[in-house]
Amino acid sequence: MRGHRFIYRLFLLGIGITCLLQGCINNDIGYPQIALSITAMQVEGQVGNAIISEEKRMVTLGLDESVDMRKVLVRSLSVTEGAKSSLSVNDVLDLTSPCNVTLSLYQEYQWSIIANREISRSYKILNQIGVSELNEKTYIATAYVSRDTKWKDLQIVNLKLGPDGATYNGNTDFSSIEWIPYTNYASAKVKVKYKDFFEEDWELRVYRKDKMAETKQADGFVNVAWLYGEGIEGLDNGFEIREASVTEWEKVPEKYVTINGAAFTACVPHLKAQTTYVCRAYSGENYGEERSFTTGQAVELPDGSFENWHSVIEKKHVWWKPWTEGTTGYWDTGNKGVVTASDSNTTPTTQVTWNNNGTAACLQSKNLFIKFAAGNLFMGEFLEVVDGTNGLLDFGKPFSERPTKLKGHYKYVPQNVTILPTNSDDKKAFEFLKNKPDTCSIYIALGDWDSPVRICTTPSKRQLFDKNDEHIIAYAELNSGKAMTEYEPFELKLDYRVTNRVPKYIVVVCSASKYGDYFAGGDGSTLWVDDFSLEYDYDN
Predict the structure, then answer these.
(1) d(Cα 90, Cα 83) in Å, to the nearest integer?
(2) For residue 387, what are the domain limits?
(3) Are residues 150 and 180 in the same domain?
């Protein structure tokens, strides 16, 4: 009897252990977490490249003004390798509202596709004052004429409110547009139609005004100011300027003034720093209101000579840091990631400087076998190594002045590109580089970000610097694959996209392999950089 009980207990124990093991197995087996992305997309009638946001999981497409947004054909689509997509090539999308796409591989990820159809619009009246205002939300277009203009004499010289070929009240010309006078303006109703998918009802308005010239805006940099005015097209249009402490006006030379119809702009160089000026626009004998502005201060680029370095030993490897020991660095490198497998690939050099004095920075791209490491130097901070051998970085340092140029010296010796990304999508994208000379890159950006620009090089979480970022105020870049035997000077003139926004951060990045963020480049490509500086004026 005892034997039977013992066997029975063993049986129950075996069942319990089996259930326990099954429970452990069921709970421990998980699915890999793979972030899925749309990596490229092209539709019929697309203008420019698709803008892909990994963070928002969103694809933004620009469409030609003649595209029917209800019927947009997908020409090409690329997604993360292995992922399935609810959207396919040759599908027809209705992009009048966001389109949702599901990507799946173990988990599902929801992406959205939005489209912007930019229509070039214009409206101009004969003898108009200033520039017309077109409100695409209210569908009201407004123009201004002089106080003595008679409503019966109004004449449209240019009107485009829809795609090319649109009709206006049923005609391709403006003959059917009739003006109705009111107390202080004249109005005309216009129905704009294009094919069977575009129809908008607009109102044209014309107001009389007393001001024949307007000083619209004045933006002072350090040694430069940007002035904006409006007047009557065809008259002598321009600006006058003076220091606030004097009374005599000086005419801004014509070579600094750009005329665009009734609007005109001036870029005035050679001003004094930290000085208050007054300016005004003129059109013929008419003057706009006076506007004042104060110029800024010329701030040097911190440690632009690259003289300060110190090194430490990390995991038996030499880790060079581009700042004096015990201080906070303004510049940083990718050496923090490199020393996990090798000595630093961005180092100081006293042997190869542009003027045989001091110290320069030597950036050398290296194949570490576990991953390609581009030689680099940037304003900001390398935060940490993530996901094995990838980097998490912050680009940019606080800065609020508006320079005109970045100047410096560089020397480059490229090697042929033999290292391509291991990720299949990236490898396809950069296959065209194979066995061609590598390219170095130097760029500068000023932006009004609220914090440094976060960079992540992990392919599945990739977040790189975007020169089309809406926060960028000014940008300039140098890309070269030329082999050089000596240093050469460079001068990057900043292209200001707007002049009335003040920067919060400055970003400068140098790389011996332009596509190093994708782990593509030439083993041994070397870039030397020395004596960077900022300029705040323009030449004549």
Answers:
(1) 18
(2) 310-535
(3) yes
